[in-house]
Structure formats: C-alpha cells, structure tokens
Design brief:
mainly beta; Urease, subunit C, domain 1; Lipocalin; 2 domains; ten-stranded mixed β-sheet; 3 helices; 20 strands; elongated
Length: 271
C-alpha cells in the first residue's frame, strides 16, 4: 500500500504527487482509493458522507463509504489522502440535481458504485455544494486538486497531467479520405425507404422514399461513430453496429439485405 499526504507550499500546491506518479504509471491495474474526504455523491440513497473513501478500479467507481481504507493493503491500492477535500461528480447531471429522475439506476451524474469513475476533488472551502465545486473548476482551476475522467487523472494540483487527452480542435474538420474503406457504398434500410450513400471523399447522399438527394452533406467516421453535417446546416449522427448502420431510428445494411429487427414500422428500428 502506498499512502500519500497533502503538502501545501507557497504559491503552488504540491498535492499527493507521489500518488499521481503511481496512478500515471499504473500498468498493473491497481485500485485507486481517495480517502478521508467529504463526498457529495448526489445519490439519493447514499447522500453526503464525511471522512469517507471512494474506490476506483479501472474506469469504474466500485465503492464509496467509510472503512474501505482498511482493505487498501490487501488490494495494493494507490491511496490518495483527501483530508480537507470534497469529492463531487465530475459529470454534472442537472436533472439528477433537482431530483428529476425516477429510478436510482438512472442517476448517471452521481458517485454511485457501478458508475464511471468521473470525479472532482477540491478543498472544502471551495465546495459548498456540487455547483460550487464545478464553479471552482471553471473559474479557479488552480485550486482543483484532481479531475478524474473514467479513472484517469486529467488535472492534478491545478495543472494538466502527463499524457492527458487533448480536446479536438474547434471548427469543422477537414474531409476524410476514405478510399478503400469497407464502409463505403450505399446503405439501404430494411424496407428500402432509406438509401444513404457514403463516398470516399467524405460526402453522403440520401434518397428517401424514392426522393433523390433528400439530404446531402459531409460526414466523418470516428471508430464506430459517424457524424453528419448536412448542407442545410444541421448535425446528426449514426453508429455502426456489426453489419448495420443505425441512424435516426433507421437500421441499414451495406448494399441492402434484411435487418435483424423485422416487424417494425417501415424503415425504423429499435434504438
């Protein structure tokens, strides 16, 4: 077990620097335990906890509450001392904040075991509530002790962490050249209502109900996601799932063929 402690200097804050080094180089999948914090879970069952622990394993939050620290040695956990700190969800779900979700399982913006390990750590004085903690991140990022996304630090002691992801450049990206990409061609909906042609120069052309060029524009493929920017100005997206392309409720196959979602209204699939 590695226990690290807060070290506050003048001008800058050196906070759990040893723990950060262990987390960044954590190739063995060791758990990461934020301990002895005030935790605003935003979970209606768990509520707010004091002097408590938050346990991350990989990208998941797997435990929250007092006493987890007692097993840190058994699990060879990386321990981050959060004395004097408040931990809040890093992803803010405003519907959750006002109690607008009917089932606890729908509380995505909460520190609930089983959710993604997205959390924000700030000193108590800058976190009167979740909104205040997020405001600190946006207006005084130098006061942030940790911002963690899917178990990986993004900010630590107010500065970017080594190897953190970088946001895409703002603006419309250049067209992709997709010559030879197996996803090029005409995608056809189950009932032949929708035809969507993807061409290697990054353009798409939709025929709907026999009406040619109903929608035309640019597209970009990122993994299994496809983003569309129509020439009319609106954005849309789709998702490749196996041999199907799902877009706006339609399921299409390259060159046609029957979809696995028969029996539904023409051209439409379950989302």
């Amino acid at each position: 077990m590695s226990v690290t402690h807060t070290d506050t200097g003048t001008g800058t804050v050196a906070w759990n620097s040893e723990a950060l080094g262990e987390i960044v180089s954590n190739d063995a999948g060791r758990p990461v335990l934020f301990t002895n914090a005030r935790v605003l879970t935003v979970d209606p069952l768990i509520g707010t906890l004091h002097g408590t622990d938050v346990l991350l394993v990989g990208a998941l939050l797997v435990g929250v509450g007092p006493g987890i620290i007692t097993a840190a040695g058994d699990d060879n956990a990386i321990v981050v001392d959060c004395t004097g700190m408040t931990v809040v969800p890093a992803v803010v779900d405003t519907v959750t904040l006002v109690g607008g979700r009917g089932q606890r399982a729908d509380y995505v913006g909460s520190l609930t075991p089983g959710n993604t390990g997205d959390l924000l750590v700030v000193p108590d004085e800058f976190a009167p509530d979740v909104q205040g903690a997020v405001a600190t991140l946006l207006t005084r990022p130098e006061e942030v002790r940790a911002l963690v996304a899917a178990g990986k630090p993004v900010l630590w002691s107010g500065t970017d962490t080594p190897g953190r992801p970088t946001a895409p450049e703002a603006g419309i990206p250049a067209a992709q050249i997709l010559t030879g990409n197996p996803r090029m061609g005409v995608w056809i909906g189950e009932h032949d209502f929708l035809h969507q042609e993807l061409t290697p120069d990054g353009r798409y052309d939709e025929t709907r109900g026999g009406r040619p060029h109903a929608y035309e524009g640019r597209y970009w493929i990122d993994g299994d996601r496809i983003d569309y920017l129509d020439d009319l100005g609106f954005w849309a997206f789709g998702e490749f799932r196996g041999e199907e392309l799902h877009h706006a409720g339609y399921a299409m196959r390259l060159g046609g063929g029957r979809s696995a979602c028969g029996g539904r209204s023409p051209g439409r699939s379950a989302r």
